[in-house]
Design goal:
Blueprint (H helix, E strand, L loop, with lengths): L12 E3 L2 H11 L3 E6 L7 E8 L2 E8 L2 E5 L4 E9 L2 E5 L2 E6 L4 E2 L5 E5 L4 E8 H10 L6 H7 L9 H17 L2 H4 L2 H23 L9 H14 L7 H8 L3 H12 L3 H18 L7 H7 L5 H12 L3 H8 L1
Antiparallel strand pairs: 1-3, 2-5, 3-4, 4-11, 5-10, 6-9, 6-11, 7-8, 7-10
Length: 322
Amino acid sequence: MPVSLPLRRFNVLSTADPDVALESVRSRQPGSRSIVPLSGPSWSLVSNAIMLGPLTLVATMSGGYTIDNEFDRYVRLLVPLHGELTLATGSDTADLGRAEAAFVYASRGRTIFQPNSALVLVSARADATAEAMRLLDCELDPVVLADRVAGRTTLPGIAALRRAVMTAVRDLEDTPAPLLGLERFRRARAETLLLNVASVLVDATGRGGSSTAPRSRVLRRALEYLEATEPDAFSYADLAAAAGTSLRTVQSAFRRELDMSVSAYVRRHRLARARALLRAGGSALTVLEVAQAVGFPHPGRFAAAYHAAFGEYPSQTARRGG
């Protein structure tokens, strides 16, 4: 079956030269030592990437190759779209097959991409991942932990992480160039993905939060932060800091007391704010401007989310308000 390559707007490389391929891979995955085609002269690699500060999203399709990695301070996650993977670490080999998602940190081994595989790779700096893990009350070294869980395809939260990665890919492909160029936007997207990666790593340790702060106070402080913060200035790190605890504890408070996740609450809050703006008869804002003002960069998705929440489209609310 044909597979379209994600991230098609960014830095496309197509080559059958292993040296060129290795140079490209090294620029995105420091520590890559060698790349060897599996199928001789017919081998090819099509690769694409976008760098979001401490995190890089890479998409590849190839005729199959083996890549060796030496030790570095990156954590990698492979999200297969189509095709098969094999992970070799030392004398152990794991056939990941058509896994939904799998952590692969091959610092002392190799990863084999079978022919006609199409994948998305998330590569994150260990220090950035460690910071995200600290927000979740975990102080372990993410490189050591990722190496320990390499090849395991049944980790808690792995399916949710795959969805988050693919949603991020779609968002980046649809984002207007001026917005994509904003460091604030790129940082927010990287932070969200780092927290998803960190959550899976933390869950793999079986260690949860240990804060003893009263839950009602945690929730109250978190809600005060959300009310006072503009969408483009929002970050999960600042949310946790405002609540005076870890992000994991904040998430638990939202689920227990409001029966929803933090992201679901933020989404509902922004939609409610959009409705108030649209219903203000004297507002000079267009529907597009309202969407951007409340943190929805894509008008189509804003309209769909608004309709699902209120049973009408933003333009209908605006006409009644006018």
